[in-house]
Design a protein that fits this description.
Low-confidence stretches: 1-20
Family: Belongs to the GSKIP family.
Shape: elongated
GO molecular function: kinase regulator activity; protein kinase A binding
Protein name: GSKIP domain-containing protein
Number of domains: 1
GO cellular component, one term: cytoplasm
CATH class: Alpha Beta
Number of helices: 4
CATH superfamily: Hypothetical protein (hspc210)
Number of strands: 4
Order of helices and strands: HHEEEEHH
């Protein structure tokens, strides 16, 4: 069984203790925080719910897309799914599809997310290209 704990705000010894306490189970609260930090740049607002009960096996994330649509997402071992159409709202009757990644879920919900993600990717590639060109020029000049 795989242990998946990566809290940046805990010391190394606390990190190891926390992973041992979990007994190999992912802490969905920590996973949710990591998801939010990964994609916050491409949505209007996104945060782990403070109103709904988050636990080791489930966490709730509120997200507002660039189009202004609000969702409450549930994160479990099964993946992510929409559970409400407002912040901190869980509709038990809603049977939304699970998504394996936050990228897949947001891609299906928001064209604005898709565009922002694509633009960020293009910027990174352009930066890499510029760095590569600068490195080549530097190496070529030093050989002369």
């Amino acid at each position: 069984m795989e242990v998946d704990c990566q809290p940046e705000d805990l010391s190394r010894s606390s990190y190891e203790e926390r992973c041992s306490e979990l007994g190999g189970v992912k802490d969905m609260r920590l996973e949710a925080e990591a998801l939010v930090s990964d994609v916050l740049f491409a949505v209007t607002d996104m945060y782990v719910s403070q109103s709904l009960t988050n636990a080791l096996d489930v966490a709730y994330i509120n997200v507002e897309t660039r189009e202004g649509n609000r969702y409450c997402l549930e994160l479990t071992e099964a993946g992510l799914r929409v559970v409400g159409y407002a912040f901190d709202q869980v509709n038990d009757g809603l049977t939304a599809q699970y998504h394996e990644t936050v990228y897949s879920l947001l891609d299906s919900l928001s064209p604005g997310y898709r565009e922002a993600f694509g633009n960020a990717l293009l910027q990174r590639l352009e930066t890499l290209k510029q760095n590569e060109t600068a490195t080549r020029e530097c190496c070529t000049k030093s050989r002369v």
